[in-house]
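Each record in this resource describes a single protein on a pair of labelled lines. An example record follows, reproduced without changes.
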Amino acid sequence: MTTFAPMAAELPPNTVLSSVASDLADNHVAAPKGQDQEKLAAIVAQARSEGIPLSVVVVPGNPGHDSSLRDLATEVGENTHGTVAVFSDDWIGTYSDTVSRVRLEWAEDAAKYKGNHPEEAVQAFVDRLEQPEGVSWGVITVVLLTLVALVIAGLYLVKLRRGPEVDAPAVPLSPRVDAGSTN
C-alpha cells in the first residue's frame, strides 16, 4: 500500500528560521542586513495600531518557487500570533490566524511585482487589509432567500384568490370509429 506524506516546508535559500524569529522580536520586521527597517517598522506599527497583528519578513531576490514564501510565513506563523507576510522582490507569501485566505490573497495581489521596494509592497498589502469588505456574502444570501420566500408566498396568495378550480365539463366519449373497422 502506498502512503503519501506531506512535503516538508521549503524555505527560501539562505534563510535561517531562528535568525528570522530573533529579528522579528524587536519591531516585527525581519530584513536582510543592509536593508533599512525603519520605514517597514513604521508601516507595521501603524497596521498594528489599526488592529492588524502584522509581522513582515523580507528576503533578498526571488526564490525558485513562490510557494517557499508561504512555507516560510507558515513556519514563522506557528510561533507568532497574527498575520505574517514574507516579501521577495516580486512575490509575497502569507499566513494568518486572524485573516481569511481569500482576503490575504486579495491583499497579496496589490503587493506583488514592486521590484526591490518592500516599503511600497508592505504599504499596498496593509492598505488592502485595512479596506472594509465590499461584499458581505451573508447579507446577499439572506436577501436572496427572503426574495424567494416572498415570491412563493405571493404565488400562494394568487392561487388562493382564484378560488377552487372548477372542473371543466367532461366531453362525453363517443365510440371511436376506425376507418378500417368492419362494424
Notes: The mean pLDDT is 87. Residues 137-162 form the longest helix (26 residues).
